[in-house]
Each structure stands twice: as structure tokens, then as C-alpha cells.
Amino acid sequence: MKRSVFIIGGSLAYRNMFVQQGWQTVDSVQQADLVQFTGGEDVDPSYYGARKHPKTGSNPIRDGIEKRFFDAANYAGIPMAGICRGGQFLNVMNGGSMYQHVDNHAISGTHEAVDKNTGDVFQVTSTHHQMMIPSREADIIAVAHGNSRRRELDRGGKMITIFGPNPDAEVLYYPKTNSLCFQPHPEFPGQNSLCSRYFGYIKDLLLTNQRDEKCAAS
Question: Is residue 151 part of a domain?
């Protein structure tokens, strides 16, 4: 039996990726085995209690709609995954925050990331100018090592810069809500290896740890 995914927004590339992996798409959270959040605008800083950076471009209407989908999936115990902005959104919904602008993080092309559990080194795409700051609830799955400069506003609104080298969080997992935050783009053309890794994380983390509502109620 095919697994079902509800994809929120995004291009046709997301649907094609899931279909090629043997999934089927559905039209509601309630029908889904997985809810997929997609790329796009930055998450509005009001969701993590920060002032808006000049380079932050957010869409509060989208944030509000997607928060309702997040709440519905979490209530129903349905696993969630996010790619790029989608991963950043899930990080914020789970109590994380964001570096609102990052330099020297391979804004185009690819760079190396390391799986913290296996030590595997793999190539990831990088089109984002922000970076996830995990909450204490996060399991950090993969990081990139570089010389990122994280540009941020302090509480008084003054611009500050935090220099690397520090590990940049690329992949996070939140057990409490069964959420996978994946900043790279496995749906891009030619990213077969990255796509396989993404679906491996979905299988090993999200589907393995999916809440069984019938058992919980018995």
C-alpha cells in the first residue's frame, strides 16, 4: 500500500519527487501519512520573538496558514517534514529560532554536511540566507562546518555579527512532534543522492517513530 503525503504549497517538483519514491499525494492533513512543508519566504521573526532583520522577507499570511496545518498534524499525531523554509518553519514551531542573515554559507551550489550519528559526509544544496538555531528539544542530525558569519539584531535593534567557524545545523529532528527539519533541497534536479538520504531520514526517524493513536487510546 502506498504511503500518502499532503504537500503544502511548493512547486510541482515536490510532488514529482514523492511520486518517484512510490508515494501518492492527498488533499488534506487527515488523509496523510506525512505532511510536507515546502520552501519559500522567511518565517516571520515575530514567531520566535525577534526584531525583523532588513534582509528578512516574510509572509505572515502564509505563516498563519501553515501554523494551522502544523497544529492539525501535531494534534493527529501525523509526522511532518520541511524542506528549506519548511524546515526552518518546523524548527520555529518547535521552539527554535533563526539567524536571520548568514554570509559564507555557500549561498549557491553545494557544500559538505556531516551526519552526526554515522559520520557520513554528503553534499547538500544551499539556497537559503538564514540558518536554524535549534531549541533544546532538537536532535541535531547533520551539520555543516564552515566560516559562516551570522548577522543578527540584538534586543536593542543594533546589528551584530557572530563569526564562525561553528557547525551550521542542516538537519534537525524534533521527537516530541515527530518533525524533520531539512534545509537542503532534495527535490532539485540531479540531487538523487540527497533525495535518497532525505527519504531515508523520513523512514528511519518519522515513520519509525510515528505515534500509534489506537494503541495510545487503548
Answer: no
